[in-house]
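Box 3.1 A note on notation
Throughout this textbook, protein chains are presented in two layers. The first layer is the amino acid sequence; the second is a token string describing backbone geometry. Keep the layers aligned when reading.
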Amino acid sequence: MSLIGRLKACVKDVPDFPRKGILFKDIMPVFRDPQLVNDTCEALIEEINKLNKTEVDAIVGIEARGFMLGPIMAQILKKPFVAVRKKGKLPRDCVCVKYEKEYGFDEFEMQKDSLKANENVVIVDDLLATGGTLEAASKLCSQLHANVLAHCVIFELDFLKGRERLNGTDVVSLVKY
């Protein structure tokens, strides 16, 4: 079975979660298959390389599922991993951004010394829906004067048009719904 087929086979539809009228795509079963996770990370890197961008200096992962993919991708690329966390979870000086997501508002932070000016980064998360989470992470990178080369996700809910919030930055996604 193809990688896309294997990924789709793992996704479980959960009606009325987290609220009535939402058909939630539960991707957690993907992470029960170590080979699938590794193959997915390698496929995402392959797609990033096809963009013919400048060399990636760091992988930025968004809490929480970006933490499951990002470090693996960073290790494969032999590049540093940088965390985007919910407000109040990181010690030391941080930059912060408030953002709107699918079900309300939240705040993200990054440590001020986590990226250097002009570093080229790829932001990693599991899913692109409305784009609020990836947009917020991109704004944090911009506050640190880093260059966002691409946003990288396994799944994209393209009917929600999340790409439109990402200012024309390339998006790599393996499975679209």
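The CA atoms of residues 150 and 170 lie 5 Å apart. Strands lie at 12-15, 23-26, 58-62, 81-86, 94-101, 104-111, 120-124, 127-128, 147-156, 170-176.
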